[in-house]
Write a structure and sequence with these properties.
Layout: H1 3-15, E1 19-27, H2 32-36, E2 43-54, E3 61-64, H3 66-69, E4 72-78, E5 87-94, E6 103-107, H4 109-118, E7 126-128, E8 139-144, E9 153-163, E10 172-175, E11 187-189, E12 194-202, E13 210-214, H5 215-226, E14 238-241, H6 248-251, E15 259-264, H7 269-272, E16 280-284, E17 287-288, H8 307-312, E18 319-326, E19 329-336, E20 357-359, E21 362-366, H9 369-374, H10 380-387, E22 397-402, H11 407-410, E23 418-422, E24 425-426, H12 430-439, E25 444-449, E26 454-458
Parallel strand pairs: 2-7, 7-12
Antiparallel strand pairs: 1-2, 1-4, 2-3, 3-6, 4-5, 5-6, 8-9, 8-11, 9-10, 10-13, 11-12, 12-13, 14-15, 15-16, 16-17, 16-18, 18-19, 20-21, 21-22, 22-23, 23-24, 23-25, 25-26
Length: 460
Amino acid sequence: MSKRKNSLSNVARQMMSGVVQIHVEGYLEEDTHSVLNPAINFPGNWSGSGFFVKYKNLQGYIVTNAHVIRNALKIEISSMLTSEERFKADVVGLVKKLEPDVALIKLSEIELARFEKLAIKEIEYLELRQGSSPSRGDEIKAIGYPMGMVEPNISGGEITNFISGSEYTTERFVTDAAINPGNSGGPSITEDGKVIGLNTAVMAGADNIGFITPASFVKIIIENLVQKNEPHFAGIGGLLQKNADNFNLLLKQKKAIGVIVSSVEGNGFLEAAGIKKQDVILGLNNIKFDRHGIVIGKEGHYRHKNIYDVIKLIPIGVEVSVSYLRNGKIKYTQAVAMRNPVKGVFSNPVINERQYLEVFGMIIQELSYEIIEAMVDVDSNAQVDMLQTIDQNKSMLVVTHIHQGTQADEMDWPLGELIIKANEQEIHTLLELQELIHKNKRGKVLLECRNGRIGYFEVD
């Protein structure tokens, strides 16, 4: 065995004491029925991994995957430093949509004091690696508690590839180090004793392919959560398309470099920067892009790091310089990095945060991506109707369950109806509908749907 491998193994053994096992009781990831009727849920328990993170002067904070604690009701951690003792942990925050799959939990002052009293040595706080990304072939060690093991497991491998992000996803490192269920949330470390990323997932059906969330994304999420902000990345605020030489005459460009702006969202980054449709974005903060939106130069050599990866790693509120082409002339502008504008249709994956109204024999919810996905198993036509509303700025109410023998059932209302009016009044939220019903005690309520269907209900 080489001296270098011995060194990495020694580092991994030292850092292993900063890794914890996370024990969770909560709701299992839901199926179609529980999405459409939030009154249905399935209790269960599971485990994952995490690590004490070194961040400023914080004590007792633990990084893990969001999917490990997303639907938790009770969270405890255990460590090799404290035998089989368990310690209650609280959620600081998480990325609910799992992009990236990062969460932050912490021990209370009382639990941290108890942990430190029982520990056989001081807690090993692990530091996130900043700056340059790893290269293909770099050796790593992935640490965690796979398959419910009670002792931490160290698996070895290399960085084998990279997966660039998109408008909706974040960059991943690919590794051949073994990452198994339960290993999620543990650190991947290098010989310098730094965490290069968070063990995130394994590709089902493939051999030796695991994914790591880069430390640079983890750091931004921690900063957001510690400040009690929702964890968001900066967005481009519009749609982009690949450039091509076919556009040379139209765009007055000598050759296809940079990406074409195909649409600009109101109140987004591109609009703030004064960018218009058919402008060509050439670079952000002096990082230039080819016609595919891939970074040009040393950082992008043998990598497909793209414009979305670049904008996401710029903290919200920081000024960004933009170079772009308009009418054949290179221009420069700047704007503050900001999240993409909020749309009316949202993601709502946390089970106990779902709000619903049970009235007239129906379950009514505000439309979410999860409901749209669930409708594929119920009524594909209704799903198509829902998809047409995604870009609207206001939320929309949808019927997701009908109880048999009720007013709604007798009127033969199907699932998936999108309610737009109540008693001729436009409504968008559960609160608006609830207030209208309350004002009409012992009266009648006329509901009108997007497709024209009506329902006339007696308030009970």
